[in-house]
């Protein structure tokens, strides 16, 4: 299997493992006795370690090879999913989520593989393939999580049975990723990146660039807004509409599909409105959409 296609498949599996938990995380927190705030905490515990560890794993792979590091992080994320599935309480669950954030760097390594095996003039196409894999996963993962989380539990099982089964499913995805990294992926690192500027220095250089800083701030603000929506969506729809995990999963998937459709038409829209104009339109529509959630809505109004 070509390394680029294999990298896209690994990204797809990581995306499935991440997004399949979205519809059930608030249910699991409640079943373990946690308040609603725990839902946001558990989302943050995955995201925060990535800020530090993703660049670290990238640098380690430059030195020791993509394949070895992918094997390590796939095993780590598999253990994190198993920790989710067997968690006896919220503290254990928090540790499992943090572990998932520390080792959840498959997308970073896949990007490095794409850079290794594509020429500069074709690199954008390679990265686009990874983006397709991740976007497809975020459309399918919530559906799978919603379906598995909504399965009828066996006699004697509690309300946490469904979310635990989703955790085992995610561990299975990461096991497949581990097998692909171990037995199918060939090494792609060439050692040419050893003299690269450290990631922190690169970030500081970007921040000092006047034309880049506003874009970074806009991206940060947009990401925070979207992260708040993702973290609270299950709680919101359960409270407002009485949706179960299956309906929440389908809604997450629909949002992912709509996002993919919009992304697919961006190139044509840029030609019509320009990058600056399209940025204003996109951010304005996002702002209106998020603000509308603060008002009483029916399910039909929500989708509108």
Describe the protein in words:
- 79% of the residues lie in helices and 0% in strands.
- The chain has one domain: MFS general substrate transporter like domains (Growth Hormone, Chain: A), CATH 1.20.1250.
- The protein is built from 13 helices and no strands.
- The protein has 304 residues and is mainly alpha-helical.
- The mean pLDDT is 87.
- Helix 1 packs parallel to helix 7.
- The protein starts with a helix and ends with a helix.
Q: What topology does this entry show?
A:
Blueprint: H1 3-19, H2 25-31, H3 37-64, H4 66-86, H5 90-103, H6 106-117, H7 123-149, H8 161-183, H9 199-208, H10 213-241, H11 245-264, H12 266-292, H13 299-303
Helix pairs in contact: 1-6, 1-7, 1-8, 3-4, 3-5, 4-5, 4-6, 4-8, 6-7, 7-8, 7-11
Could you name the key traits of this structure?
Growth Hormone, Chain: A, mainly alpha
Biggest sheet layout = none
The CATH superfamily title: MFS general substrate transporter like domains
Q: What do we call the CATH topology?
A: Growth Hormone, Chain: A
First and last CA, distance:
43 Å
Identify the overall geometry: globular
Low-confidence stretches: none
The percent range for strand residues is under 5%
